[in-house]
Amino acid sequence: METINHDEVTVFGQPAERGRWMLIPLGMSVLLCLGSVYSWSIFRKPLEAELDISATESLMPYTIALVFYATLMPIAGFYIPRVGTRMMTAIGGIVVGMGYILASFATHIGMIILAYGVIAGTGVGIAYGVPMAVVARWFPDQKGLAVGLTIIGFGLSPLITAPLANQLIDAYTVRPALRILGIAFMVIIVGIATTLKLPPADWQPWQRQAVPANAQRLTYPVMLKSRSFYGLWICYAIGTLIGLSAIGISSPVGEEIIEIEPGLAASSVSLFALFNGASRPLFGWLSDRLKPHYVAIASYMLLLIACVLMVNAETGQIARYLMAFCLFWFCLGGWLAMAPTITLRFFDPNQYAQHYGIVFTAYGVGALIGTLVTGRIRDWFGTYTYAFYPMALLAIIGMIVASRLLKREHLPQG
Fold first, then answer.
1. Does the global pTM surpass 0.85?
2. Which domains are seen in the chain, by residue range?
3. From CA 106, how far away is CA 114, in angstroms rounded?
4. How distant, in Å, are the alpha carbons of 49, 344, 354 from that of 357?
């Protein structure tokens, strides 16, 4: 095989080691557009009034979008090497944009579910993994930090897209707002897609240390036979289950248990989102430098502390509530950075898209179970307080699983 001349590899006309840093804000921008799915609550009230639908019905497009996003992510992972990173991102951007645009013309909630939930959710799942796969290949020396920085875009998206959507609705009403956002997202994502290229197969940064011979990376399908994969999958599922359960009840818990004003409960979500975004590069960086099971155990300890705070929460304890839910959101963001970074550490990075697609199914399982169970607990017991007991138990189970299974194995390749 012909050796690549390190000096000949450029990114945006600059030497690769400097130019590659531009890929992080570009990937972050793609994920910021895709993360607008979390801003659906801005559209709910106007659509409820216009279509005369219930709150449950107005929530369905968001729920279906999450299901299709989580379902398409592992499928798309297997097609990225065949279709290419640029084409995959462009397809995802076009599908997301079409979902928003079609939803803007829908006259029935069923059509909105199809357009926004199925189509836009599918587009998010198609494009979501590409920016992370690209930066992971360009940053083999700092993969955790690079992936963590890139994925900030998805976590912080509601801080930007929700106010933007609100302003558009105030200025143009809900349907033109959906249309404008759909066109904007399509143009931005397709434009950035042209820049998301992978490095040459044997390219390495100058300071990259050679991987020791005994630090063997598992390839697919050997990955599915390893204890480390199942340890990562279970830990990821537990982390996202607890985090997504807490996120889904952030405002209701504030209003019902702490009895704070609805306006304060809603605005506190912006504070929580900041913690969710800030934790991603931090946990990615830590997962690069420490043994992954240590980082995982630390996150579960923080989640356990948050659960204990809320089990004993009483009316008026606003500081306790804010501290607990900052921890919940902080740890969820951490897991969304830890899981891809650990996947890169444990398994063959050249098959990252496929590997992380499989690992990401844990997120889908955690999302579905978490949101369903917390609602049921509220219906059964009349309060969300009892939801924090099973969360605490899961955090303890997560510590045990991480300490036993979340370690790299050295199995025969094949």
1. no
2. 6-193 (1.20.1250.20), 222-405 (1.20.1250.20)
3. 9
4. 38, 12, 5
